[in-house]
Design a protein that fits this description.
Blueprint: E1 2-5, E2 8-11, H1 19-25, E3 33-37, E4 40-42, H2 44-47, E5 57-62
Parallel strand pairs: 1-5
Antiparallel strand pairs: 1-2, 3-4, 3-5
Length: about 70
Amino acid sequence: MQLTVNGEARELNGALTHLDQVIDALGHHPRLVVVEFNGLILTPERWGTQPVQDGDSLEIVTIVGGGS
C-alpha cells in the first residue's frame, strides 16, 4: 500500500487495514503523536475504526516534552 507520510511516499504492508496498525508499523507510540488523516485531525479513539487505503495521506506530529 502506498501512503504519503509527512510529505514522503511510503510503501507499507498491504495487510495493514486501519490507522492504528499503520501508526504502530511506523514505530510511533500512540500517546505521543497527533495524527492528521487526509486533512482531518483524528483522536486516538478513532484510529482503530479508520480504514486506510492506497493513496491516503498522513501527517504525524510527535509530542516532545521538556523545558526549563
